[in-house]
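Methods: example folding runs. The two proteins below were folded one after another, and each record is reproduced exactly as written to the output file, sequence line first and structure-token line second.
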Amino acid sequence: MEDELSILFKALGHPIRRQILDILKQSPKTTGELNNYFPEVTRYAIMKHLSTLQEGNLVVVRRKGKYRINFLNVVPLQEMHNRWVGKYMQSTAASLLNLRSAVEQTGGDGDMSTTEQGRVFRIEQEVLIEAPRERVFKALTEKVEDWWEFRLAPKGIPSRLTLDPVPGGYFIEKWGEQEGAVWGNVYFVNAPEEIRLHGHLGMQGAVNSSYTYRLIEKDGATSLQLSHTASGVIEDGWENEHTEGWKHLLSNLLKKYVEEDK
């Protein structure tokens, strides 16, 4: 943990790297697009800064054809916040629907773009969990009720959560005799490396939403990568709410649950 913090502080230690994070907070960028923000800096230097940010786990890179798309990963910043600030603050995370982002609203085109069908957003996060991949996968699937805090059941009514990690399986919440809600449907499983689901995750209406967990082994630990894409009639605030919701679920609740080996 201390080594991770040293790398994180190193990554934050240069003003250009902090500016890069400010830019990526607004929307993902290719390396070439980032270079355009710094006309006095060589492309090689920008690539070195990005490499340092990747080492600090502050930037997640996804490839799209020949381009490298750089995404801000907010998880390490949340972990740092939790260590020195979070315990002095009362959590406001009551549900995925009422979470309000502490991040500024996306400006300009931002990460939320407009298509003929509506809006699109994409969330990329990564968290390192000090546990074997099999244990993390089991927590994501068989043990999801033990750490997934959010509920769609009416306030005050207890509910149960289950996730069947097989193609066609349901991630479902049930309450009462016949009431319930589907959080997701499993459409791809390669245990313990990857699982993909379709699901609205609290959004309503004409929305197409899917999310993927990828688990990568790293020296006895597991790098959990989340990709969540939604398109359609996306209301203002949903992207930020889900960004904060995933951050709370994965970097706080799941990480603590697995590392404490409950």
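Second run, written to the same file directly after the first:
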Amino acid sequence: MAKVLLLSIPSHGHMNPTLGLAGALVKHGEEVTFFSSEEFRKPVEATGATFICYKDDLNIFKFSQGQAATASGKKKPAGKPGFINALLQPERFVDHLMEQIKGMQFDYIVHSAAYPYASVIAQALKIPAVSSFAVFATMKDFEKMRKGKTWSLANLVPFRWKLRFLYLLFYRNKFGKVRRYLQDKYKVQVSSDLLSHFFNKSELNIIYTSRYFIRDNSHYDDSFVFVGAPVYEKKYQVDFPFEKLEGKKVLYISLGTVFGNYAAGVYDHFFKAFAEMDITVVMTAYGVDLSAMKIPANFILRDYVPQSAILERSAAAITHAGMNSIGDLLYANVPFVSIPMGADQFFLAERAAELGATIVLDVHTLTPEGLRAATEKVMTDKSFIVSSRKISDSFREAGGYEKAVEEIFSWKKTKGIRR
């Protein structure tokens, strides 16, 4: 068996695909050491991998408070969330990890495409790398998003100019210092293009979709392996009153674990839209304070739910169109309404709509009446099921995690990794 170092951004959107991959690698005999945060200890250990906790909170969406050492050795606040700020803190993502794995031996590394400086770690360890793409909208896709109205004010200027403006004005000199620090300390090459570190390509790249779903395949060369939606038996232990769903028409609502709290007012629209309908609404509201709102009797609210099991019982769903959620919905062939709020959600929602599988609503102009009308339409118009099934079939035909492992093992031979 080969020894694998697995690094993932410890947020659900990035962890879920890599957990499935870790489990598949362990199943086929690989010895996987999986770094993540304490929050994910149990699901990581359930895959059969060895869990090691990062020294710091590396969730780029919510850095922990406190003090952290800079490259120069000075102390500073732990840092603001966000990809660019993460790239300016190499001590969190590189130095501390290199200290933790000192003396360990690995044959190759598997990392989230979004893990800052994963290529630096691979070069420093002199081992080949596999990238796990939890986000597969390219920079060009982001630039083309016409509906990019997010809480982060991305629409103040066109997206590409906003990124370039921020990069040139605020981060160019700071990133230059970090880049020189890493190159001098680890004797590695670090790309001078800061934005390229949002999409860390490796020698082999596992991407969790199908070529049918991707709008433009020209962005993906032969190093990319399309394996379909990251669907597997998740090991999260979540209690849920399934008996309350017996004999009921179920609507499932989830806005994910990152963006839902930035649009708390949307939940009131849900309550008003569906309180009088003869359905049971299962809704996740991760970290959202709904104490001031009157929750209708036909709603079941939870921070987490066993999503796959709920989808088996759902007549329709409403989603933020994050990759994991939209993958599960399409794979399960559940008709859905999309309310994208940030990141690649606009790309995913628009692409699903182009293929006839969803209705996309604008979070800024949302009304209870429009929400209910869209939901009733996807529930009753059979064309959404037909279109969704085409995508679902393409996901299944892509081969899933077994295909991913097959490709990794073939790649291992080309790298001389025999065990």
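Comment on the second run: The chain has two domains: 3-228+399-414, 242-396.
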